[in-house]
Design the sequence.
């Protein structure tokens, strides 16, 4: 159980570390620790994120955003802090 907790903590730090570059940018948490970000997870950090913008950012049409897809959307201004 301790190993699981350590792996989970390391995963959370890795996933959120990508978005720590801009102190003003919200941190998107991978709440279910599956390595991708759902619309609900993105909307928890970017309340103005729409389903349409999310689908456009989901370039592989997987229904979830990878860290790279999320970062590209944020960099492009698709998701902005409210």
Sequence:
């Amino acid at each position: 159980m301790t190993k699981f907790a350590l792996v989970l903590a390391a995963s959370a730090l890795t996933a959120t570390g990508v978005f720590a570059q801009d102190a003003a940018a919200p941190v998107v948490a991978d709440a279910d620790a599956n390595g991708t970000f759902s619309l609900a997870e993105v909307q928890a950090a970017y309340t103005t994120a729409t389903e349409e913008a999310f689908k456009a950012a989901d370039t592989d049409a997987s229904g979830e955003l990878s860290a790279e897809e999320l970062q590209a959307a944020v960099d492009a201004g698709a998701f902005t802090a409210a």
In short: The chain is about 50% helix and 0% strand.
